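Researcher: Next entry in the queue.
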Amino acid sequence: MYLVQLLLPLYDNDQRALPKALFGSVSEELIEQFGGLTTYSRAPASGYWLEDGDNPVHDESVVYEVMTEALDRKWWAEYRAELECRFRQKALVVRAHSLTLL
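Model: Structure for this entry, 102 residues:
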């Protein structure tokens, strides 16, 4: 089993708040595809990194998680590319962790 996490930014690259409907549609799509979804949206995650070598960048994201028996890398790559367009991002983090239910 796998836990797949999507880090979805609250703001686009121009620091404009993204519409709530955008997050709602992603929720609906993931629930339909995987049968469930966990979101961490009340306290946004803060990310910091250096862009172009020395320009510090800050972003606030919410985390969406789904569990899946099989990891369809092609589906996730296509979905990530679609979300990058919708969220107006150069790149989005989608990561998977191997998971054992106890």
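Model: The longest helix spans residues 20-34.
Researcher: Noted, moving on.
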